[in-house]
Amino acid sequence: MPAKKLYLIDALNQIHRAYHALPELTNSHGVPTNATLGFVTMLRKLISEEKPDYCGVVFDPPGPTVRHEEYAGYKSSRPETPADLREQIPWIRRIVEAMDIPIFELPRYEADDVIGTLAARAEEAGIRTVIVSEDKDLLQLVSDKVKLLTERNQRYLYGPEDVENKYGVPPRLMTDLLGLMGDSVDDIPGVPGIGPKRARELLQTYGSLENAVDHAGDLAKYKYGRNLAEYAEQAHLSKRLATIHTDLPIDLPLEAMGVGQPDVATCREIFTELEFRRLLDDYVVEPERAEGDYRTVANSAELEEAIITIREAGRVAIKLQVDARQPMRAQIVGVGMSWEPGGGVYVPLAHQGLGATNAMRTDECLRLLSPLLVDGDVDIVGYDLKRDLITLARHEVVGVQPQLDIMLASYVLHPTRQSHRLSALASDLLHVRTTQLKEILPDRKATFDAIPIAEATRYVAERADLTLRLAIVFDSELEAQPGLGALLADLEMPLMQVLAAMELRGIRIDTGYLAEMSSQFGERIETLQAQIYEIAGEPFNLNSPKQLAEVLFDRLGLPAGGKTAKGSRSTKAEILEALAPDYPIVSQILEYRELSKLKSTYVDALPGYVLPDTGRVHGSFDQAVAATGRLSSSNPNLQNIPIRKSTGRQIRRAFIPADGCLLMTADYSQIELRIMAHLSADPALQQAFLDGIDIHRATAAQIFHVEPQDVSYEQRDRAKVINFGVLYGMGPQRLAREFNVSLAEAKDFIQRYLSAYPRVRDYLEATIDRARAEGFVTTLLGRVRHLPELQSGRPMVRSFGERIAVNTPLQGTAADLIKLAMVNLHARLAKLGLRSGMLIQVHDELVIEVPEPEVDRVTEVVKQEMEGAIELDVPLLVEIRVGANWMDAKG
After folding, report:
1. What letter would DSSP give residue 79?
2. How far apart are CA 300 and CA 879, in angstroms?
């Protein structure tokens, strides 16, 4: 029978390794989690792959140890444990205990000593021990029965021969080696002038530290020999400090160390709180499915009865079940409703196949439901309701005014939460598992209408029920934070209605123009390929960075400018742009890349998004994505249509209005700089905006000490970079790269800027200090973003947190401002009975479709609503243009 295996884990060593290996991670409440996740992942992998018979986790005790008592300088230069790492250690201990693995710790003795003693006890019992640590001090314990497992670069198991091959001495002499050469990690002094090589030679010659010291006189002609004699006592002390105790009063409780089953409930509670969803899915037994009284509505009479009950309840969660994710293409398959936690109904409307018995036709169901949804007597709640509003509007149910969208509630309350999906919210907040669609779909290609009605009832009614339960949870949170409650009710919920109207309307696309552009791009791409291949001497894969690097740097001998993270020579755009002026092939490659990306991403892709019924693209504007409050766009990303280069700008020509209409663009001018002027109350910055002068010219005059009329184009451009760079936390290193100047010159530019606008400097410093003290920042409209990064032990992460602390009140306020303007503008256009409507939002810009007779009136209304959305100490300015397509309107 093979000997059983005991695995002893050096806890703090592995925790530090995980902390430095993983990027900064937090849950939505700002609790740091990277070390915890890394350690738990390591532990699970170890148990799964190594299959130990016994296991123990050994911690260092708080406070000084016997080595500190003997030598005050022991580990004295070690930095203090970072606060965000220290905060994770109690979580790790809780998880280890929940996984039913014993923890060992002995006051006044380090984890190494406890590991040494347990390993000695195991060896006496005939048990093989594997120590899991990166600490070389533990190599002294290695024997035929004790191994050291490290994973710094790759998993490696040290035996006695491995130790001797690497360090030149057997494990039993590792303490002698450390005694002679010292250990800077633990501040063990050793003997001055004796390094690893000399220490190995002495031990190979004399067999031990003591014998080497005894023969120090023989080596007196050498400096190290004289040092050995002079520092003999220090050498003996160093060896004692390096020697691990193996005889502590600790038993080896093998029965308790057997690898057993974790406490599932406790693990689930911890992993849920830390938001380790993959662990919940992959390791811990799934939570119980949501339980409820879910039933199918069989006919219109039962639906009418349910509606009466709903009106008495005063609140209902609605879930439209459709057959496609894109709401402009979706057909309603059924409707789920819940008005009491733990219960729900499903109204099947369009199920297909054998045994499908639909309650009624869709139009009849909506005729009965419509008054309930639009008369305002019942609070309507739901999840991602924008999709449902679009689908209902397509079925002529308009005027629904939902009271609460739980996706938006989660986003407003916890903008950095990893996921606002219904299943994630139910798992985190209700501790239940939702039924997944893939569990009930008969196959991948099937749509929801193929699902048996009994299973469909469970799925849809459950979602309505969980939505209602989550609404109750969020009610309490929003009541406790009235500012965020107001932000949700007065801004995000009304905006949802505006975005639904924009998506319903869509924007017209000139597919013929795009087809022509695609042909032109294709011809130019072929020409560029031929030219590049001719210079290179043979064809190659232009889209392969490896092959491109070989052609440019090996075959053609161009200077390589940098490397990728994996060590390959980089062919990134910034590297090639630096070479382009001197090498025509590089210019051609850059043009090839640009045209290929534009063709595949936009020119050829956009026609595929056009809905045949409308001839328009109906993209999605997503509210619950960016932590700053900015909207994002998808399917397609209409906010990412190129603008910087003329070739990209041509794509915007394909976006056209309806016949008899024009496109209007309304763009806030320098909105974030104006917000900075308001927040900082800097008199010079404010005065520039009050006087209506060019802010970049004014800044250039300030920092270059010239009259405004004498500012050169280059000075204005540099001032513009600095103006916006300060908002985004641009440091001198990046500014030096932008300006191609020295670091000292870049620092001087920033200092001159801050001297010109001293209140800006004061505001930036005060904002960071306040964020560090309070843990969060807010926008003018009360949006909150928590910043756990400011408490990080890593300077780089703290710097990132400081940039976010500065940027969020500016970018977040700008995002809130245009959202508010959109809500007000939408209402005003409707009130005036105008046919104009918003189509696209691109951060600070709106694109509006305007019938030609309404252009003057809408220009006036847009200017009033956007410039008057909120009151600042400086005027808001909106630039409005009109054209026959988006490019012409943008100017």
Report:
1. P
2. 54
The C-alpha angle with vertex 450 and arms to 446 and 452, in degrees rounded to 5, equals 135
State pLDDT tens for residues 134-176.
999 999 999 999 999 998 766 788 999 999 999 999 999 999 9
Are the C-beta atoms of 55 and 6 separated by less than 8 Å? yes
Peptide bond into 636 cis (omega under 30): yes
Identify the helix (H) or strand (E) that includes residue 848. Answer: strand 845-851
Continuous segment of H or E residues that includes residue 667: strand 661-668
Is residue 746 within 8 Å of 736, Cβ to Cβ?
Answer: yes
Amino acid at 585: I
Q: Which stretches of the chain drop beneath a pLDDT of 50?
A: 284
Half-sphere exposure of 610 (CA within 13 A, CB side): 19
Work out whether strand 776-778 and strand 784-786 pair parallel, antiparallel, or are unpaired: antiparallel
Q: What pLDDT does 284 receive?
A: 47
Residue-wise pLDDT tens digits, 666-693? 999 999 999 999 999 999 899 989 998 8
The phi and psi torsions of 499 (rounded to 5 degrees) equal -65, -35
Q: What is the side-by-side order of every strand in the sheet holding 845-851?
A: 837-842, 845-851, 661-668, 878-883
Q: Which token pair is 829?
A: 């256009």
What 3-state class would DSSP assign to 394? helix
Whole-number mean pLDDT of the chain? 90
Find the length of the chain. Answer: 891
**Contact (Cβ atoms closer than 8 angstroms) between residue 482 and residue 411:** no
What distance in Å separates the CA atoms of residue 863 and residue 869, rounded to the nearest whole number? 10
Q: How far apart are CA 62 and CA 42, in angstroms?
A: 24
The set of residues, in sequence order, having a beta carbon less than 8 Å from that of 340 and lying 6+ positions away, is 313, 468
Q: Which two tokens stand for residue 838?
A: 């918003």
* pLDDT reported for residue 153: 64
Q: What is the 3-state secondary structure (H, E, C) of 643-663?
A: CCCHHHHHHHHHEECCCCEEE
The CA distances from residue 107 to 60, 75, 113, 248, in Å, are 8, 17, 11, 11
**Is-contact 373 382, C-beta < 8 A?**
no
One-letter amino acid of 601:
T
Closest-CA residue to 274 (of 485, 88, 551): 88
b/e code 41-58 from CB counts within 10 Å (16+ = b): bbbeebeeeeebebbbbb
164-170, long-range: CB < 8 A, 24+ apart: 167/139, 167/196, 167/200, 168/200, 168/203, 168/204, 169/200, 169/203, 169/204
Task: Say if CB 671 and CB 876 are below 8 A apart.
Answer: yes
Phi/psi at 295 (nearest 5 deg)?
-135, 160
Contacts of 655-658 spanning 24+ positions with Cβ under 8 A: 655/507, 655/508, 655/509, 655/510, 655/847, 655/885, 655/886, 655/887, 656/508, 656/509, 656/510, 656/884, 656/885, 656/886, 657/508, 657/849, 657/850, 657/884, 657/885, 658/508, 658/849
> What are the structure tokens assigned to 216, written together?
């120090």
Strand 146-150, strand 128-132: pairing? parallel
